[in-house]
Design brief:
By secondary structure, this protein is of the alpha/beta class. It has 3 domains: 93 residues, no CATH class; 156 residues, Rossmann fold (3-Layer(aba) Sandwich), CATH 3.40.50; 158 residues, Rossmann fold. Helices cover 41% and strands 13% of the residues. The strands form 3 sheets. It has a 6-stranded mixed sheet with strand order 4-5-13-10-11-12, sandwiched between helices. Strands 8-7-6-9 form a 4-stranded parallel sheet, with helices on both faces. Helix 9 links the parallel strand 6 and strand 7. Its EC number is 4.2.1.20. This is tryptophan synthase. It comes from Pisolithus tinctorius Marx 270.
Length: 467
């Protein structure tokens, strides 16, 4: 589309003023267009609608004004208010006033395009969103349709479960003094990688890309790609490539190409950006196997659906071991995927207290910490490679604000104390990330009744952190 001269790229203003270049813009685009042409960017009134029609537009798209009406409408009055608004435009009729799409004014009355959802696309939960590049949109719809088709398909889950032996599932609970935890050998990342590689095969993709910080998702992705003979490219920040040299070696041994990202702040965020850039130029052949519950929908629910295996195993094994649900479930939170997996099955079980633990870094006040939820703003200092992403998946703030889960922080020093206790007393070398959760349980256990059962998700092994 030609560049719009207006600095904020709006074609209209609330007083009815029209960008003077609109007729010229429409004429220039129509020379190349073989489909109906619709006008958007600030359409909010009948005056705007009339101006667009007079400028020879085939349709008019009203988006943000509809959203505002919905937000402002009293409970139960949303449909009527939106319908009345749509009827106020010329050419609207009861049969087309809420049509999702565009019709041509040259062949039909022009309509207001009330943006709902394309055919086959699910409505998103209010805590999810999808603000993405236009080039990604069709690919995301394809991915969501494939995911929806498998979510309640017994044959897909039979195939998924057939790989349990390979995934070391189910994990076992191990007694750790008066607490319990899940299997530490390896990582929860393999659950998601197996599920998504099955989706990629169904979609006919021949190439997989992924991003990784601590490498555990990278190794899991490289592993499943090696199993099915698919090309694999892993994006890591240059800093993580250096400090995770052994793990980079593992990924390359598995046949993956590892790309060291030198741009930006050289952290996981920049690796994600580079992977997104690769994906947008290779959509037809490539599946982006995202490793955590941040980013775009449907990856949010896809990652959650494959990670909730963690909570399902905790629930089943705690009932077997104790005859009841755990009292407390604790997991570390970076992007939030292992915590989503640990918590999700327990959301309806309000007797189970859920605790997410973020990296307090060198202290809570200032920038040198990664406690996004606890502090309400990003911070970028952590010794844990997976915790330096300046955000968290949308399920977690939803649970925090609704009081369903508690979110706390543990500092570098405390996490390393947990490391010493775990290795010296139990002979287990866990990753730095879940050590934040481990340390949180130690002082918390002293305040709980003696028969309280707490589960800690030790979501990765620590060979990656030896240096």
């Amino acid at each position: 589309m030609p560049h719009l001269p207006d600095g904020n790229h709006r074609l209209f203003h609330q007083n009815g003023f029209m960008n003077s270049e609109l007729p010229d813009i429409i004429a220039r685009i129509r020379k190349h267009a073989s489909v109906p042409l619709a006008v958007d960017f600030g359409v909010a009134t009948c005056i705007h609608f009339d101006i667009a029609v007079e400028a020879e537009a085939d349709g008019v798209v009203v988006g943000s004004r509809i959203v505002s009406l919905i937000k402002e409408a009293p409970a139960g009055q949303v449909p009527q208010l939106v319908e009345n608004f749509c009827r106020g435009f010329k050419g609207s009729s009861p049969s087309n006033s809420s049509t999702a799409g565009v019709q041509s004014s040259r062949y039909h009355y022009p309509v207001v395009a009330v943006i709902t959802r394309p055919t086959g696309m699910s409505l998103l939960p209010p805590r999810f969103c999808r603000y993405v590049l236009e080039a990604h949109y069709d690919c995301l719809l394809e991915l969501e349709e494939a995911s929806n088709a498998t979510r309640n398909n017994p044959m897909f889950w039979d195939e998924f479960e057939s790989h349990y032996g390979y995934m070391n599932c189910p994990s076992k609970l191990y007694d750790l003094a008066e607490t319990r935890r899940s299997q530490p050998y390896g990582s929860h990342k393999i659950n998601n990688a197996v599920g998504q590689i099955l989706l990629a095969i169904r979609l006919g993709k021949t190439r997989v890309i992924a991003e990784t910080g601590a490498r555990q998702h990278g190794v899991a992705t490289a592993t499943v790609c090696a199993c099915v003979g698919m090309e694999c490219v892993i994006y890591m920040s240059a800093d993580d490539v250096r400090r995770q040299a052994l793990n980079v070696f593992c990924m390359r041994m598995l046949g993956a190409k590892v790309v060291a990202v030198e741009s930006g702040s050289k952290t996981l965020k920049d690796a994600v950006n580079e992977a997104m850039g690769d994906w947008v130029t290779n959509l037809a052949t490539t599946h982006f196997l995202i490793g955590s519950c941040y980013g775009h929908q449907p990856s949010l629910t896809i990652v959650r659906d494959y990670r909730k295996l963690i909570g399902r195993e905790i629930k089943a094994e705690m009932k077997e071991a104790t005859g009841k649900l755990p009292d407390v479930v604790v997991a570390c939170v970076g992007g939030g995927s292992n915590a989503v997996g640990s918590f999700y099955e327990f959301i309806p079980d309000t007797s189970v207290h859920l605790v997410g633990v973020a990296a307090g870094g060198e202290g809570m006040y200032g920038y040198r910490r990664s406690a996004t939820l606890a502090r309400g703003k990003p911070g970028r200092r952590t010794i844990s490679a997976r915790f330096d992403y300046p955000g968290v998946g949308p399920e977690h703030p939803w649970w925090k604000d609704s009081k369903r889960a508690e979110y706390v922080v543990v500092t570098h020093e405390e996490a390393l104390r947990g490391f010493c206790l775990c290795t010296q007393l139990k002979g287990i070398v866990p990753a730095l990330e879940p050590l934040h959760a481990l340390w949180e349980v130690i002082p918390r256990a002293k305040t709980l009744p003696k028969k309280t059962n707490s589960v800690i998700c030790l979501s990765g092994r620590g060979d990656k952190d030896v240096e």
